[in-house]
Amino acid sequence: MRVVFGRSPVAVGLAEWLARAEPTVLAGRSAVEGAFLWRQADLASGAGVKAALTGARRVYVVVDEADEADGLLALLARAARLRGAVVLPLGAPAPPLLGKVPGLSRVRLGPVWGPSEPLVASWARTLVAGGRVWLADPGVFRPLAVEDAVAYVSEAAERPGGVAWTVPGPSAVRLPELAATLAKGLGRPLRTVRVPLGWALRRAGVERARLERWLATPEGPAQTDGWSPSRVVGAEGWLGDPGSWSAG
């Protein structure tokens, strides 16, 4: 059993992919539907964490904010033999208690894109329904396909004693390029309306702060102790399986 703690699209995407190979639990405050089990747990206070860890062989802690996992990390610090990984956004500060769990690997990721990303899902629903995508072009960022992110996180979680890895996205792109890639994968024409960034994000139900973090992600080479996955899906791999998209 693998247990993923978190509520972000990265946590959901990680749980979806891990569940393809082994029973997986996503633990967080609010129920999430997916190809995994769900258990309630509050990462900040630690409530429900022990129950969520029942049967865990590996644990993955996905944090988007530096202070949201203190209760969880305080409890994990007492489980000396537990192996897994803490996943952090590239460039974000580490949680204060992270040093208490040296056995867990640390993996810093660039912006992770895949079907669980709300902006991608919103675009896909609009395209499948034949609508126009509200689109802005705030700048460049470096997306990392969720499948590649999972490969790095999974490997890091198996390293005894933990490692500290950094994995940026492979190339710089803009939102219009990603929308065009999605439309091509879905076999739909890309019909857009250029609007201010705030309008586009509200339409998609995405917080502005989230996109601003993507744009502010520092550049640099990957640092993975010389390890690389045997298969890399690359810059367009975040699209996933176009046949799985629907208008629902």
Question: What does the model show?
Answer:
By secondary structure, the protein is an alpha/beta fold. The chain contains eight helices and 13 strands. The protein has helices at 9-18, 49-52, 70-76, 118-128, 146-157, 175-186, 197-204, 208-216, and strands at residues 2-5, 24-28, 37-40, 58-62, 84-89, 105-109, 112-113, 133-135, 140-141, 144-145, 164-167, 173-174, 192-194. It has a seven-stranded parallel β-sheet with strand order 3-2-1-4-5-6-11. A two-stranded parallel ribbon has the order 7-10. Strand 1, helix 1 (9-18) and strand 2 (24-28) form a beta-alpha-beta unit. The longest helix is centred in the middle third of the chain and has 12 residues, at 146-157. The chain is globular and about 55 Å long. The two termini are 30 Å apart. The mean pLDDT is 87.
Write the layout of secondary structure elements.
Layout: E1 2-5, H1 9-18, E2 24-28, E3 37-40, H2 49-52, E4 58-62, H3 70-76, E5 84-89, E6 105-109, E7 112-113, H4 118-128, E8 133-135, E9 140-141, E10 144-145, H5 146-157, E11 164-167, E12 173-174, H6 175-186, E13 192-194, H7 197-204, H8 208-216
Parallel strand pairs: 1-2, 1-4, 2-3, 4-5, 5-6, 6-11, 7-10, 8-13
Antiparallel strand pairs: 9-12
Helix pairs in contact: 1-5, 4-6
Beta-strand content estimate = 15-25%
Based on DSSP secondary structure assignment, what is the total number of beta strands?
13
Distance from first to last alpha carbon? 30 Å
Helix segment count?
8
Instruction: Give the neighbour order of strands across the main sheet.
Output: 3-2-1-4-5-6-11
What profile does the largest beta sheet have?
A: 7 strands, parallel
Return the string of H and E elements.
EHEEHEHEEEHEEEHEEHEHH
Large-scale geometry? globular
